[in-house]
Inverse folding.
């Protein structure tokens, strides 16, 4: 288990998410900023409010995803021995990263689940060490390694 490589993979996925959000925001910005003289169809103006709302939602999501990336980057150099912020936990058939919640990825033929310190499950696994048992949903795991 190479923590740096796995976190770099998560960061690369965050970069894709951030780029996609930025691109979508730009499209909604153009759709919400129509010039009356350049628009032939008056119905286009009826969608300006919707486009502005969507743009604002996406901007909030962009801020959140950017913060998540910053958290993950700060965790790159942490050497964890217990489940805490920055820990990459090997559960034999999957990895669990504690830092920021992102979508599930794959590395070393294992799924990588990510959670933040705000996740309800975090409080039940915080401080666990190699060899300890944890429960995720209705599944039970033994911690094989922590980096």
């Amino acid at each position: 288990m190479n923590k740096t490589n796995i976190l770099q993979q998560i960061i690369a996925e965050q970069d894709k998410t951030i780029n996609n959000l930025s691109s979508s925001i730009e499209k909604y910005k153009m759709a919400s900023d129509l010039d009356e003289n350049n628009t032939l169809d008056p119905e286009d103006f009826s969608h300006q409010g919707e486009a502005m709302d969507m743009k604002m939602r996406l901007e909030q999501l962009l801020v959140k995803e950017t913060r998540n990336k910053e958290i993950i980057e700060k965790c790159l150099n942490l050497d964890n021995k217990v489940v805490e912020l920055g820990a990459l936990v090997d559960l034999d058939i999957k990895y669990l990263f504690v830092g920021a919640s992102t979508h599930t990825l794959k590395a070393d033929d294992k799924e990588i689940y990510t959670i933040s310190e705000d996740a309800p499950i975090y409080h039940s696994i915080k401080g666990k060490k190699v060899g300890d048992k944890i429960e995720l949903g209705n599944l039970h795991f033994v911690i094989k390694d922590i980096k």
Remarks:
- The chain has two domains: 3-75, 88-146.
- The beta strands are 88-90, 94-98, 105-107, 110-115, 133-136, 139-142, 145-146.
- The helical segments are 3-32, 43-46, 48-75, 120-125.
